[in-house]
Design goal:
Chain A is α/β, with parallel strands linked by helices. Chain A is built from eleven helices and 15 strands. Chain A is 32% helix and 31% strand. Classes of the chains: A alpha/beta, B mainly alpha.
């Protein structure tokens, strides 16, 4: 059996075109084992297309990919043995109850014993907080309940990989929180690959993030790497007074790539971008303190949030790759 | 969480992975909904009612001993031949329409709702998905649309005759009816893999059912390769009338081949379908 130890999902040069529309363009992806991999992108970026190709529901125009070392185009059944999938809008067999749907999903993997399958279904219902609605018809479920039941269905075989397409996008804040809690609980058992356009969710639960835009993979790495990739490390220094020659002096240091100053409520706010964090930590504050006409009131490393990085990348001026 | 060690894992032929569970689902789609009893009631009532009308009501009128009646072997034999004609010639067409209506939605609804997509992310082959639909729907459709009405009709024929109606010719006639129904079942299933709109599937299938009689009337050789003549053949065979072998076997063999061709196309088309 082919195995890939370090990465669960790997794609190489994966592309998909619908006529003249390029939905995916040369996507090279590597999803580490036991990670929660957040797959970010604006609507229409190609997230669902990529997931469908990974699941064997759609064929790539060019390129290849593997899941657990199996070819995504030719070994779908072997891959499906070990994964769980939650579509963007989970669908169920509407003439079955929640428990019957779970039992039906479980029977794709297990032929018995019946009592253990029933136990597993009950366990899944408990995991997603739907025990009290187990015997209710699906059509009476709210959006959040359907989403959670969808996760239970995806998880019923204890998959090694969960693929979730926008698991929380259509939910209210409470529903979203519950879904993220479930994902958090599952993280120690499985690799989770999920798409979203909700940045807060990514920042809350993801270990690794990829950003897809117009079918291209623009950035991929840990959240820290994505944020750092935005333009190096930036320090913010607030001062009283602003010597004329300081900006010119800063530009003489090779480890400072850019500096700027703005005035705010009588203070000067300096933004200094550096390429070498260690030198900056030792020397940058000292440079400012050496200025006699200057009083430093605040010195800090600027914290970017994912939203800034995402918007920069999606707008096309990011350098995250 | 525990692991999967204490479970018995599904063991199936690789090419038919998921078939057992999909058969359970298709069976549930009949038995856990109103579909089974509606069809179990409607078809015996429609077909049985029409045959009863011919056998019981028309015989209430004192039929003249016309040449036709005499040629048939008397009043009872004539009325029975009318009953057989209604059941096999009209019934076979009505059942074909029933099959088209029941089957046209099988694939399209699940594709449009996303259920097919979800199922195909489980360890199932696409062929198992199609085959489960074919097998279970064939069983229930043939049971409710053909076999139960045939039993009702056979009982009425025997009642009218005052003795058991000859079972063998009647069974041959019903077998031809089954073949005709399977033709439309596989045809519509195949259309469901090609088209994503119910209107297209219904239009083509019903258009073929109604139009093929006209076309074979204009182009006679088509009678040998299309199932158009099967209703008449079924009625004649059931009435123990001899049908020349050159008229009997070519459409039967051709219809069987068409069923296999439709399945082959359905399988290939569904394998290529993107979700």
């Amino acid at each position: 059996m082919p195995q890939s130890d370090e990465f669960v999902i790997q794609t190489h040069n994966l592309s998909k075109s619908f006529g003249a529309v390029k939905a995916l363009q040369s996507v090279d992806l590597a999803v580490p084992k036991n990670s929660i991999f957040g797959f970010l992108g604006p609507n229409g970026a190609g997230k669902t297309t990529l997931m469908k190709i990974l699941l064997g529901l759609s064929k790539p125009t060019t390129g290849t990919g593997t899941i657990f070392g199996y070819n995504i185009s030719s070994d779908s059944v072997s891959i499906h043995e070990r994964i769980g999938y939650l579509p963007q809008q989970p669908r169920f067999i509407d003439y079955m109850t929640a428990r019957e749907n779970l039992y039906f999903a479980a029977k794709f993997f297990f032929s018995g014993p019946h009592s253990r399958i029933v136990e597993r279904c009950d366990e899944m219902l408990e995991l997603v907080g739907l025990t009290d609605k187990a015997n209710r018809a699906i059509r009476g479920f709210s959006g959040g309940e359907k989403q959670r039941l969808g996760i239970a269905l995806a998880q019923v075989n204890y998959p090694d990989l969960l693929i979730l397409d926008e698991p929380a996008s259509s939910l209210d804040p409470l529903g979203r929180r519950k879904v993220l809690d479930v994902m958090d609980r599952l993280r120690k058992h499985t690799t989770i690959f999920y798409s979203t356009h909700i940045l807060d969710d990514v920042q809350r639960v993801s270990d690794v993030v990829a950003i897809l835009n117009h079918g291209r993979l623009e950035a991929c790495g840990s959240i820290e790497q994505i944020l750092n990739g935005k333009g190096g490390v930036v320090y913010t220094i607030s001062t009283k007074g602003s010597p004329e020659n300081l900006e010119a002096r800063l530009s003489t240091f090779h480890w400072i790539t850019h500096s700027s100053v703005t005035q705010h409520n009588g203070s000067s706010i300096w933004q200094v971008s550096v390429i070498d964090e260690k030198i900056a930590e030792r020397q940058l504050l000292r440079i400012f303190l050496e200025e006699e006409l200057l009083v430093v009131t605040e010195f800090s490393r600027k914290k970017f949030d994912l939203e800034e990085a995402f918007i920069d990348i999606v707008k096309g001026d990011g350098n995250g790759k | 969480m525990a692991n999967n060690m204490d479970f018995i894992l599904v063991q199936e032929q690789p090419g038919l992975r998921g078939l057992t569970n999909l058969i359970y689902k298709e069976k549930s789609a009949w038995l856990k909904t109103r579909r089974w009893w509606i069809n179990a009631l409607i078809w015996p009532l429609i077909l049985g009612g029409l045959v009863a009308n011919m056998l019981l009501v028309s015989s209430a009128f004192n039929l003249d001993l016309t040449e036709e009646v005499i040629a048939a072997g008397g009043r009872t034999a004539y009325v029975i031949s009318l009953g057989l004609s209604v059941f096999f010639e009209f019934g076979i067409q009505a059942i074909a329409i029933g099959v088209i209506i029941l089957v046209n939605d099988l694939l399209v609804s699940e594709r449009q709702s996303g259920v097919a997509e979800w199922i195909l992310t489980k360890p199932v082959t696409r062929w198992a998905y199609i085959l489960a639909k074919l097998l279970i729907n064939a069983v229930f459709i043939l049971l409710f649309l053909v076999i139960i009405p045939a039993i009702v009709t056979y009982s009425m024929l025997s009642f009218k005759l005052g003795a058991l109606f000859p079972i063998l010719p009647f069974t041959y006639g019903v077998s031809i009816m089954i073949l005709h129904s399977l033709f439309y079942l596989t045809f519509v299933l195949m259309l469901g893999t090609i088209f994503n709109a119910r209107s297209a599937i219904l239009g083509i299938a019903i258009g073929f059912l109604l139009g093929s009689s006209l076309v074979t009337g204009l182009i006679k050789p088509l009678l040998y390769v299309l199932p158009t003549s099967l209703p008449k053949i079924a009625a004649s065979v059931a009435n123990n009338q001899s049908v020349p072998a050159n008229l009997l076997w070519p459409p039967i063999v051709a219809t069987m081949l068409w069923c296999l061709i439709f399945l082959f196309v359905a399988r290939n088309q569904f394998d290529r379908t993107e979700f």
